[in-house]
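We now fix the convention by which a protein and its fold are recorded. The integers have meaning only within a learned vocabulary of local backbone shapes. A record is reproduced here so that you can trace the correspondence yourselves:
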Amino acid sequence: MTLLAAGRHCHNVLNPLHSVIYFAPEAEAEFTALGLAPGAMSYFAGRAAAMGRVGPGVVAATFYNYNKALISRHVPALWQIAAPEDVLAARLRAVVAAQQRILGAELLASAELAEAAELALRAAEGCTAPGRPLYAAHAEQPVPDEPAPALWHAATLLREHRGDGHLAALLDAELDGLEALISHTATGKGFLPEAARATRGWSEDEWADGEERLRSRGLLDGAGRLTEAGERLRRQIEDRTDRLAVSPYRALGEDGVARLTELAGKLTAVSLANGAFPAGVFAAGAGRARATE
């Protein structure tokens, strides 16, 4: 396996350990205790708080595939309800509580989890900040003292580092946020279309218009499936994303990447078995919360 392929595989098994925060009832409890509304408002607050009191334009630019109209209903009003530093503290408390529920005390205290945290943090040291605003914002947050939340923090850095590079690849492919989302769901490797449209705030008409734009480029067929050209473009995007995301895995080295992949895979398997993600959101075999789109 090449380093690029190994890095993608490592990301795929590590990313769910970060993404559990978006579905954890503990997060909703913490955010609503601050006065935030559940759902979109809490999500925007939790993921954007590291950037400070940013406006809807910054959130739309860095999150990319969300409808700005949905974002504008919550941002910047949410910062009048909860300060970014309070949101970040609530998010970390939610992570700790969710990990306790999903992984259990014995696994959280294990040498393997501590080793996974150490390897992930070492990999994150190889990330680069220029041109990567979401990564850079999260990289300025302190590393938690305990191994389990430290692992989540490192997974967050690796996710946002890859995600920022992925947006550069999407821009190069001339896909706007909605087109990127539609074409990704058409691969069958991420969100189901209905869940993607609803959670990202796109109407049925807007979704249909996006599909038509992709059909006009020969990327989507009449049934909403990727054409050969569409599949080729998505492969090119993922390959470019791999190249832009390789620096942390190069820093960790071949053996370190293999070991982190092994350990993260075991932790993710336990998380999935213990219901970390709801049914009816991701396509079968999509590798829960794997995608950037």
